[in-house]
Amino acid sequence: MSKPDANRLLNPGPLILDGESLDPGLLVQAARSIRPVVLSEAAWRRISISRNIVNGIVESGHAAYGVTTGVGSQKDFKVSSEAITRYNQRLITAHATRLPGPTLKPETVRAALIYMVNAFGCGFSGVSEALV
């Protein structure tokens, strides 16, 4: 095994999230530092493709759980295309919690955000690029 380049260890450049290769060590390193974090072009493409699928579902008017319908006990109720934005805002508010939010360390919050963005990079969530 070759000796690591000391300069690379001190200035490793941005952590590139691709939705596939983030490991616990890199996550901890990025969360505890000010190392920039970026998404790969492939991850951005997957996000865009999955969002286009969601947009197509909305435009079609077909029932899709949590997209054009409610969730849980409200799954049988249609959400109109005009109400989707408002519905999503209410859904986020309904699931928001303040515990243990205010007491979390900044690196814990950063780790959670990095993990979440990396998961979005898989392209399975259908989130908008603006959210990411």
Q: What is the structure about, briefly put?
A:
With 132 residues, the protein is mainly α.
Q: Tell me, what's the shape?
A: globular
Oligomer: single chain
CATH class: Mainly Alpha
Major sheet: order of its strands? Answer: 1-2
What is the strand content? under 5%
* Portion in helices: 40-55%
Calculate Rg over CA atoms. 19 Å
Number of helices: 5
Output the helix-strand order: HEHEHHH
Largest sheet: 2 strands, parallel
Total E-strand runs: 2
What CATH calls the topology is Fumarase C, Chain B, domain 1
* Count of the separate structural domains: 1
Q: What is the average of the pLDDT values? A: 87
How far from one another are the termini?
A: 37 Å
Q: How does the helix and strand content classify structurally?
A: mainly alpha
Within CATH, the superfamily carries the name Fumarase/aspartase (N-terminal domain)
Low-confidence stretches: 4-8
CATH architecture: Orthogonal Bundle
Q: Would you mind describing this structure in some detail?
A:
The protein has 132 residues and is mainly alpha-helical. The protein has one domain (23-120): Orthogonal Bundle (Fumarase C, Chain B, domain 1), CATH 1.10.275.10. It has five helices and two strands; from the N terminus they run H-E-H-E-H-H-H. Strands 1-2 form a two-stranded parallel ribbon. Helix 2 crosses helix 5 (106-120). The longest helix has 20 residues, at 41-60. The relative contact order is 0.19. The model is unreliable at 4-8 (pLDDT under 50).
